[in-house]
Amino acid sequence: METAINVPRENLEAVMDRIDRFFIDVKTLNGRIYREYTGKDNDQVLQNLQLLVDKCPEKIGIRVPMIKGYNDRADCEQTKRLLTEMGIEDIEIFKYRTGLSDEV
User: Residue 5, by phi and psi: left (phi above 0), alpha (psi -120 to 50) or beta?
Assistant: First the structure.
């Protein structure tokens, strides 16, 4: 399942046992940047990540996009460090390409 997991916990709990792998797009763990980009808080994302770490860490694959005008390499590395501290091992940072520019 590809998801940003910013969904109610009960929705995630309803499908957890049926999903082989969660491919999760984590734009940032910086609350201010997340709110600016998405218009929402990332509390739900953090709670859902912790739920998955507690219940099925082997199913988690994280992708952290570097998005021009949104975050930078330092923010992505900080997000990766925090995810690692949570117990997540499969984390990839990549440059998001808009087609307008490959620069981040």
Answer: left
Q: What's the rounded Cα separation, in Å, for the pair 58 and 63?
A: 15
pTM of the prediction? 0.85
Q: Considering the chain, what percentage of its residues have pLDDT values greater than 90? A: 80
Structural domain including 33 reads: 2-95
Q: Read off the tokens for 13.
A: 């709990």
User: Residue 99: which region, alpha, beta or left (left: phi > 0; alpha: psi -120 to 50)?
Assistant: left
pLDDT tens string 14-61: 999 999 999 999 989 999 999 988 899 999 999 999 999 999 999 999
Q: How many domains does the chain have?
A: 1
- Answer yes or no: is 26 within a domain: yes
Planar angle of CA 87, 42, 88, nearest 5 degrees: 10
Question: Can you count the helices (H) and strands (E) in the chain?
Answer: 4, 4
